[in-house]
TrEMBL record, chain A:
<dbReference type="InterPro" id="IPR034904">
    <property type="entry name" value="FSCA_dom_sf"/>
</dbReference>
<dbReference type="Pfam" id="PF01883">
    <property type="entry name" value="FeS_assembly_P"/>
</dbReference>
<feature type="domain" description="MIP18 family-like">
    <location>
        <begin position="7"/>
        <end position="78"/>
    </location>
</feature>
<protein>
    <submittedName>
        <fullName>Aromatic ring hydroxylase</fullName>
    </submittedName>
</protein>
<dbReference type="InterPro" id="IPR002744">
    <property type="entry name" value="MIP18-like"/>
</dbReference>
<dbReference type="InterPro" id="IPR052339">
    <property type="entry name" value="Fe-S_Maturation_MIP18"/>
</dbReference>
Automatic annotation (TrEMBL), chain B:
<feature type="transmembrane region" description="Helical">
    <location>
        <begin position="145"/>
        <end position="170"/>
    </location>
</feature>
<feature type="transmembrane region" description="Helical">
    <location>
        <begin position="376"/>
        <end position="394"/>
    </location>
</feature>
<feature type="transmembrane region" description="Helical">
    <location>
        <begin position="290"/>
        <end position="308"/>
    </location>
</feature>
<protein>
    <submittedName>
        <fullName>Uncharacterized protein</fullName>
    </submittedName>
</protein>
<feature type="transmembrane region" description="Helical">
    <location>
        <begin position="314"/>
        <end position="335"/>
    </location>
</feature>
<feature type="transmembrane region" description="Helical">
    <location>
        <begin position="250"/>
        <end position="270"/>
    </location>
</feature>
<feature type="transmembrane region" description="Helical">
    <location>
        <begin position="12"/>
        <end position="31"/>
    </location>
</feature>
<keyword id="KW-0812">Transmembrane</keyword>
<feature type="transmembrane region" description="Helical">
    <location>
        <begin position="84"/>
        <end position="107"/>
    </location>
</feature>
Amino acid sequence: MDALTDSEVLEALKDVIDPELGYNIVDLGLIYGVTITDSQVDVVMTMTTPGCPATNYIESGTYERLRRIHGVKDAHVAVVWTPPWDPSMMSPDAKSYFGFA
Amino acid sequence: MHGVRVSRWSLAYFVVALLSLLMAELLLMLGVSDPMSAVSAGWTLVAVHLTTIGWASMLLLGALQQFVPVLTTKDLASQRASGITWATMTAGLLLLLSGFLALPGGALAGGRWLLPVGGSLIVIGVVVALGNLGTTLYRAWPWALPVWFIVTGLGFLLLTVLLGLTFAISLTDPDWMSPNVAAELFGRGLVAHVVGGIAGWLTLTAMGVAYKLLSMFTLAPEHRGWWGRLAYGLTAVGLGDIWVNQWRVVTTAATAGWILAVGGITVYLLDMMRLYRARKRRSMELNARMARGALVALAVLVALGTWARVTHQWGRWALPLIFLGLYGWIGGLGLTQLYKIIPFLTWLESFGKKLGKQRTPRVQDLVNEARDAPAYALYFVAVLMATLALAFHWVWVFRAAMGFALVATADIARALWRVRHPRRSKRSGVSSTVPRLD
């Protein structure tokens, strides 16, 4: 089996959305880092607003999606608040979707 | 886990709020409640308190059960206390409304106990809410700017309901206090009740909530800097000054309070313009687009209120301006933000646990903005029409305007009901308002 890559993980995580903004967490810039060790994936991510009641769902949804990637046996999601998320962290596609370049 | 729990009771508060608003609009449309000819009549008091307690206060208290945890990143101290406040305030409101109809010459015979018992239940509900929200806020010191607005608003809420209970007891037992004290109470006290309730509680709290919500929804900077601090400081000190000096014969001090409060709200409105201009989300959703109608209503309220005070026409404009504040500013903001909050809470309930396991819709997919936008436009036009009708004493225009407002509110309530109860396709059994998930 080919080794899992960061881009495969990020592509899979595009299935997870921030429900309020209605866009995937990868293009929103919420994923700060992906570390792959054998069949384990560790993701460091943030949220748009601390205290948002959707936080727990997005965190567990990210974990669930990671576990469904072929070849992943274990996953860990760490939510951090520094650096705080800013709209400038969005991908060009997401910025275009929300109407700013 | 890093997020806060979803409020178990907010939706129950919103149901009472919307039903109260619909009922108030119906009574005003039918002319059963007629603020132009009989402000203190039983049925008019029913419509007024359906609007202020049933609609606006239940709406804000329901929103705060979820919003305070978001602001503080701390879970609500007690979900049970949230339910107790809902139950006591709903029961208290029903008894209070019945009590107004049991006043001498009213539609109900007897029932002298209804007003004080209803008022007491409302005070109990508010005290429980203050304890619950206050404990949550205490754990989050130091406070962010919106929290300062909310805490000050909650202080005014307590003053307002305590005064209201005093009125309720006095109406039930006129011999409870001397005629001189009663005259003061129903003169200056009534103004303090209105100022404390509409400006202190509802407006300050709505200002704080709107600061956070609209910056979140439009992707605008949340930190408002000295603009926000100045808006809060001037408005809070000004309203406090007006409230205190309402009880004293010091018109200069009260005038200073008016100037400060008007200055504070003006700074706030200018800062909201800055917020909208600085937003990253250029294509706004309906709730953020239409919330500008509520902010315009607040701006008109401040401008007309200043003009009426300077030209000594307050007597003529007080009623229209109170109406504009309740229906245009607070009502408009409430109806527009419910259009986001209810779908969001519904999404968390219905799809939150499916995230990452299957494709999920967006919150926006639970509503149909193109279908629902005209109702909001109609609502704001109806409120403007009703405000002018109150100012110029056009009775039938006012009733027609309230009919339009009723139709608009009913259509918005229908849209929100549809979010909670999506139609299901007969063939597939899948909701037709939500995209297929897999």
